[in-house]
Amino acid sequence: xxxxxxxxxxxxxxxxxxxxxxxxxxxxxxxxxxxxxxxxxxxxxxxxxxxxxxxxxxxxxxxxxxxxxxxxxxxxxxxxxxxxxxxxxxxxxxxxxxxxxxxxxxxxxxxxxxxxxxxxxxxxxxxxxxxxxxxxxxxxxxxxxxxxxxxxxxxxxxxxxxxxxxxxxxxxxxxxxxxxxxxxxxxxxxxxxxxxxxxxxxxxxxxxxxxxxxxxxxxxxxxxxxxxxxxxxxxxxxxxxxxxxxxxxxxxxxxx
Length: 256
Prior knowledge:
The protein has helices spanning about 1-20, 30-40, 95-115, 160, 165-175, 190-200, 210-215, 245-255, and strands at about 30, 45-50, 55, 75-80, 85-95, 130, 135-140, 145-150, 180-185, 205, 225, 235. The strands form three sheets. It has a five-stranded mixed beta sheet with strand order 1-4-5-2-3. Strands 10-9-8-11-12 form a five-stranded mixed beta sheet, with helices on one face. It is built from eight helices and twelve strands. Mean pLDDT is about 80; it is low at about 1-20 and about 60-70. It starts with a helix and ends with a helix. By secondary structure, it is of the alpha/beta class.
């Protein structure tokens, strides 16, 4: 029965997407995975954001979705003009059953892909190489003896931004311990500098990081992972966990 409901949901979503009269014909709908493959490009420009009924949000939104009043449960449909690299977002209201089914399907896909790319729980990380927003270089060797917390996020992700104060509190609690907190995003350094003026994020910021995002096969945001002192990966991004911050704290204490 659940599969039938999910199939009907997908079918109805496709039908509705084809009938969005407020989306110009030269824009075609693309899936989340396709969108996030190109979302790191600074040339990609958001034009407008709509609800499914055509209600438009155009009040100084620019790159951030923070001021938008959204439905409690919704899906995002992306429409891209490939030649101009411009895109629209349409938010579609979904039921609680559909939301849970989406979360389950997404979790299964992420789990399967991490197994494929050898990123399942307990896998020993072989390589990590990146540069933070201040130009400092990091490798696994330079982080030896540290517990590493990786938070994958981006500026336009409302749930990502909402959890920043809680993440800051965790960082403050462990600031004198052998823990490194990294906020990894595909957003550019310039965008991050403007963002943190209004919304401080105390993690070490790692911009322009599609390489790391692809390395860990992240296609859901926010996603949080922990790498222990033995370089083993631990996933703490269960989509159905509601007490996530306490879980993060407990795992950090466990691996210190």
